[in-house]
Amino acid sequence: MRPPARDIRPLLVSIVFAAVLVPALALYYRPAGCTLEVWSSQEKSKLLGEMAVAYNSTSTGRGCPVSVDVVASGTAEQALATGWQASGKPRPDVWTPAASIWLDLLRASSPATSVAVPVTTPSLAHSPLVVAMPLPMATAVGWPDRQLGWADLLNLERQDAFWTAAGHPEWGTFKLGQTDPTVSTSGLHAFIGMFSAAVEARDKTNTPPPLTENDVSDPAVIAFVQAVESRVVHFTDTVATFTNRLRAAGDLTYVSAVAMEEQEVWSYNAGNPRVRLAAIYPREGTLFADHPYVVLVAGWVDARKRGAAAGFQQFLLSPNQQRSFQQHGFRDGNVPYPVPDDSVINAHNGLLARQPAVTLAEPSPAVLVKIEQAWPSVH
Questions:
Q1: What are the residues whose beta carbons fall under 8 Å from the beta carbon of 5, sequence distance 6 or more?
Q2: 317, 244 in Cβ contact below 8 A?
Q3: Do 105 and 179 share a domain, yes or no?
Q4: pTM over 0.70
Q5: Nearby residues of 134 by Cβ (< 8 Å), 6 or more positions away
Q6: 10-residue block means of pLDDT along the chain (379 residues)?
Q7: Could you tell me if 291 and 124 are in contact, meaning their C-beta atoms sit under 8 angstroms apart?
Q8: Are residues 351 and 365 in the same domain?
Q9: Closest CA to 193 of 103, 269, 107, 280
């Protein structure tokens, strides 16, 4: 006599349940002790976080997933100089500040630190420093044909009735805003730009050579920089403070000009604000933020972390992710010139593809340290 047939429905349910649940668990499973901690500068942190989510869903990313934290470039440099001390933040395995200039400062200011950075690092994207002005104001001073310099801005700041003479008394006085150069890349690049403009004015040259330690100590140069800084109305740690206030207020009495990255102008205008911004590229020259990808040399970055960092780096440098950077207002990580014809770097977005006309040489680490040391005495 044949045995009674077994009911296989519970078994089928279990198989189906496993087929659905196991991939889901694999997608969200986080191996203990292996999360790749990435510190990112603010302007690209949201985009980098989205890329991390996409990477974590891949088979490579699931092995050691990426977590992105926002840490201002200068704040990160200072924390790493003391062995990664940063309140409320886990220690980083990868650091991607806005510019390699912070790597030079870390090397120069803390040669004995327990954290080191590689000699060479890849660039994720480029973005030049610009002076952003509300579009009506920029148009009133000649944008897009006229590019102002730091000496021009100083002249405008000194004219208390400039906007009145230009037919816009409702705009009040010309107000310059600046971010802290010990924290913000745009603030540091602007500060360097002021020193370079001062040397140009002193030597009556069109393209100043790289700054020297003697330049930074020259009383005439210091007096020029101090004159510009003394007219700054608003100081803040991040560009977001300015853009949030401009977006909320929508008026032109708060600030007339703020130094920021070109990409931040794109990002602001992409939000369809009531008053758009235009980018002015400093006539004396400007510096590029190159957004390096830095795998830290530290005791806690073991072989598994280094492998994960290499995997995420390869993902970020892939054509699809590079295209995403450029669709979000950044320039190419390898070739910032020329931008493609279909680039978002265009006048409609308040940007000029053929600018900047002059790129400044990055100061040596020793000069950078002296520039930062000059900050408390000139602002």
A1: none
A2: no
A3: no
A4: yes
A5: 246, 252, 256, 275, 276, 277, 278
A6: 43 37 38 83 97 95 94 93 72 96 87 82 98 96 94 89 93 92 95 94 85 96 93 86 82 90 97 94 95 95 96 97 97 89 95 94 93 90
A7: yes
A8: yes
A9: 280
Tell me the pairing of strands 277-280 and 288-289: unpaired
For residue 8, being part of any structural domain is answered with: no
On whether both 141 and 230 belong to a single domain, the answer is yes
Q: Do 229 and 364 reside in the same domain of the chain?
A: yes
Report helix, strand or coil for 127. Answer: strand
Same domain, 81 and 196: no
Structural domain span for residue 312: 33-121+292-327
C-alpha 361/C-alpha 135 separation (Å) is 29
Report the C-alpha gap between 153 and 148 in whole angstroms.
7
CA 22 to each of CA 15, 51, 60, 312: distance values in angstroms, whole numbers, following the listed order: 10, 24, 17, 24
**CA-closest candidate to residue 186, choices 294, 62, 43:** 43
Any residues with CB less than 8 A from the CB of 149 and at least 6 apart, and which? 197, 282, 283, 284
240 domain residue, yes or no = yes
Claim to verify: residue 173 and residue 250 sit in the same structural domain? yes
Q: Does residue 16 sit within a domain?
A: no
Residue 270 sits in the same domain as residue 146? yes
Q: What is the CATH number of the domain that holds 153?
A: 3.40.190.10
Distance CA 195, CA 270 (A): 32
Evaluate whether residue 24 is within a structural domain.
Answer: no
For residue 294, what are the β-bridge partners?
Answer: 95
Q: State whether 234 and 312 are in the same domain.
A: no
In a 10 Å sphere around its CB, with 0-12 CB exposed, 13-18 middle and 19+ buried, how is residue 141 labelled?
Answer: buried
Distance CA 292, CA 125 (A): 8
C-alpha dihedral, 54 to 58 to 61 to 67, nearest 10°: 20
